[in-house]
Task: structure prediction
Amino acid sequence: MKLKSIVTMLCIIGLVLAGCANQKQSASKSKEQTLHVAAAASLTDVTKDLEQAFKKQHPDAKVTFNYGGSGALRQQIEKGAPVDVLMSANKKDVQALKNKKQADHVYDYAKNNLVLIGEKGTKAKSVNDLKPGDKLAIGEVKSVPAGKYAESYLKANGLYKGVQDQLVFAKDVRQVLNYVEKGNAQLGFVYQTDLYQNKTKDDKVKAIQQVQLKEPIVYEAGTTSDNQLGKAWIEFLKSDEAKKILRAYHFEA
Result:
């Protein structure tokens, strides 16, 4: 009888301890909050460092990123995609959401420059040096801000008609970079920051010239849900630490 009693008691104690452990795990999971950030493709690298710094202040936060062209990301949000923050590569898309009351707490967090790039050994100095059969890669004009900036530059300088038949369009700036790296396009327009992936300069392409635009390229962010972590992310972008990280990746902040 005594042995049975001891075994029964041990089983009860084991069940109690297991229950406590499960309660602790459940409590830990309940504390974890998820922040969904839709970010322009040109932010693919820098956001990883921004996330690490943000989580030091918000250890229970889980941050997920969806990268793409700013216009395409905006359209996803308009259709109800579960996104808490849009980090755009322009002001237009965030402002469009704000006008529809789908964005709040907007903030201009960085600036960038547009650069004409070519294959590593190219001797080209402008798009005028494209040869018959060569291709010029730019982002999709309707969904990729860099593509719109490139089109505006070409038209403003009377270059568009001359290269129109040689254009190839990409879903984002990273695809433009990939096209030039692999020789699928001889020239392309990307952001200056795209030449420094993981803080290391890309040696597979050559920067030919920085494009002079009428207006600066301003990156804007805004919250797109009631998730309080979204507002916290915007406030974090205003911090000196976030600006330091952005500058390390060659953004102006």
Observations:
- Confidence is low (pLDDT under 50) at residues 20-30.
- The chain has nine helices and ten strands.
